[in-house]
Design goal:
eight-stranded mixed beta sheet, 376 residues, three-stranded antiparallel beta sheet, Aspartate Aminotransferase, domain 1, binds pyridoxal-5'-phosphate, 2 domains
Length: 376
């Protein structure tokens, strides 16, 4: 069976983990964490990058730093992972779901403003498949209504919007290094800050509410409990694992991009024949080959397609069940306007295996299996 995902492994991970262990510095914010953060700051041009235990934790930090009050509202797409929503729910916020665009599967920027109320405090956008949301329009709405913008860039490391790096455009950017993402440390993530205004506050909430980071920089002579916080920093062992992968950024990026392009080349004729729809990458967006998907006619055809792929030894999988139809989504949120595309498009989408190191042979098996479905 060809797996849908195999976690990235570049070869140096164990060496660096051994170095971390022998260096007897395996708690958070050790040398490997610092090195990863430096690479992430350089890559994303952010003023500060903080490794976290997950993208979920980074989103929780961002939600904390938005200073929400119970009853405040946050606008987000329903077509996303639950963590995008949960971070805000934990702060007492109400969720207001906005429909997606059928082309990119991202939040429809044209439907955001009608969802804004007196209580709206933030917009959480998700760059689905590493393809950017329409950030200029979204930032303009945020400015008009004085809203924070949180970028869930879990899938979007290295992607761009009009030349700007995703995760460094809104007020907060959240990356994921889960094993299903382009670069991994098992479980992990990062919070990106585009400017330093909130640096102290971010560091305090990440370090159990203490000013330990200021203490280590020699800015205070002892560290104390300052404010609300939690333990959001990963062990340096995990950072060592990630460090190996970030050093090999280009090789991983190119390998994924190569698979993505070949899928795209081979499948476009099916789209021209009207059999499927394929990812749309707006001209001003640079993507990172996080995902390759196709959209079938409807749920019934997708179910048949996934079964066909499995019979041919290929794990192709669907993706999010819209949050507004889930028990928690119903409890904590409401849908603004009409669900024209969220449910319909999510039921048509199937993802193909795409990971670093996918062999040519396996890739060709995937392609043959897709083609044979439509040749029946
Ligand atoms: C993977 C993912 C997350 C969660 O990331 P973790 O690091 O597993 O917490 C959140 N949002 C989106 C859009 C994701 O794809």
């Amino acid at each position: 069976m060809i797996d849908f995902n195999v976690p990235p492994f570049v070869g140096k991970e164990i060496d660096f983990m051994r170095e971390a262990a022998l260096g007897q510095k395996i708690c958070g914010d050790g040398p490997f964490t610092k090195k990863c953060q430096k690479i992430l700051e350089d890559l994303t041009h952010s003023e500060a990058a903080y490794l976290t235990t997950s993208c979920t934790s980074a989103l929780e930090m961002a939600a904390l730093l938005c200073h929400l009050e119970p009853g405040d509202e946050v606008i987000l797409p329903s077509y996303t992972f639950c963590s995008t929503a949960d971070a805000f729910v934990q702060r007492g916020a109400k969720l207001v779901f906005v429909d997606i665009r059928p082309d990119t599967m991202n939040i429809d920027e044209k439907k955001i403003e009608e969802a804004v109320t007196e209580r709206t405090r933030a917009i959480a956008v998700v760059h689905y498949a590493g393809v950017a949301c329409e950030m200029d329009e979204i930032l303009a709405i945020a400015e008009r209504h004085k809203l924070k913008v949180v970028e869930d860039a879990a899938q979007a490391i290295g992607s761009t919007y009009k030349g700007r790096m995703l995760g460094n455009i809104g007020d907060f950017g959240c990356l994921s290094f889960h094993e299903t993402k382009n670069f991994s440390m098992g479980e992990g993530g990062a919070l990106l800050l585009p400017n330093l205004d909130l640096r102290d506050e971010a560091e305090i909430c990440r370090e159990k509410g203490t000013d330990r980071s200021r203490f280590f920089r020699g800015q205070v002579d002892k560290y104390t409990w300052q404010d609300y916080g939690s333990s959001y920093l990963p062990s340096d062992l995990n950072a060592a694992y990630l460090y190996a992968q970030l050093l090999d950024y280009d090789r991983v990026f190119k390998d994924r991009m190569n698979t993505w392009r070949i899928y795209d080349e081979v499948l476009r004729p099916l789209e021209r024949d009207g059999l499927i729809e394929l990812p749309v990458i707006p001209e001003h967006c640079g993507h990172n080959a996080h995902m390759y998907y196709l959209k079938l006619k409807d749920l019934k055809e997708r179910t048949a397609f996934l079964a066909h792929m499995r019979e041919h030894g290929v794990l192709s999988v669907f993706h999010y069940i819209p949050l507004h139809s889930s028990p928690a989504g119903r409890k904590f949120g409401r849908f603004s306007g009409e669900d024209v595309y969220t449910t319909k498009e999510s039921e048509r989408l199937a993802r193909l295996p795409l990971y670093f190191g996918l062999t040519e042979e396996d890739r060709d098996t995937v392609i043959r299996s897709v083609l044979s479905f439509f040749q029946r």
